[in-house]
Design goal:
168 residues; alpha+beta
């Protein structure tokens, strides 16, 4: 997702910069091939850029800082993995795509790589399902999430330096 994509979704400049910085700083700690398949990001198709409707969902765990201060690191890691697996399972059920894990947050696409006429509705249904599902994750207290959803037209696909120069 690019700054233009976030701008087209109506995200203010400061928030766009923070989101892009967070995305850029999230380098995998281990080789992609060793990650479970539900964690591995799907790469963009090597095809011309495609204009499409995309629904983006951001999901963030409430109170994760407090948990990190009160839990053993390995126990916290297991809790975060269970949380991510449960969320990813729900997203998969609605044919969404987990684009990126951002600490205790997730960026999820509905409408890429597979588009559906009801992607925005799928995102809302997934969000409601996630709210209920994360409460069942074994934790010191029931987990809660905050979720934001935005839908808009984006350009998805491979961009090159020549594409950037052509748009000026």
């Amino acid at each position: 997702i690019t700054e233009t994509d976030l701008k087209d979704l109506g995200i203010p400049l400061g928030d766009r910069k923070r989101i892009l910085a967070a995305i850029k700083s999230q380098e995998p700690a281990v080789p992609q091939s060793t990650l479970p398949t539900w964690v591995r990001p799907r790469s963009l198709p090597a095809a011309p850029a495609d204009r499409r409707q995309l629904t983006v969902m951001f999901c963030d765990m409430v109170g994760s800082v407090g948990l990190s201060q009160s839990m053993d690191p390995e126990t916290l890691r297991d809790l975060m993995r269970a949380y991510q697996e449960e969320c990813a399972s729900v997203v998969e059920k609605y044919d969404g795509h987990v684009a990126q894990f951002l600490g205790d947050g997730m960026m999820i696409y509905f409408g890429w790589p597979q588009a559906h006429e009801d992607d925005a509705e799928r995102a809302v249904r997934a969000a409601l399902d996630i709210v209920n599902t994360v409460k069942k994750v074994s934790a010191p207290a029931p987990l809660h999430v905050r979720i934001g959803i935005a839908t808009g037209t984006v350009v998805v696909g491979e961009t090159t330096d020549s594409d950037v120069g052509a748009s000026k």
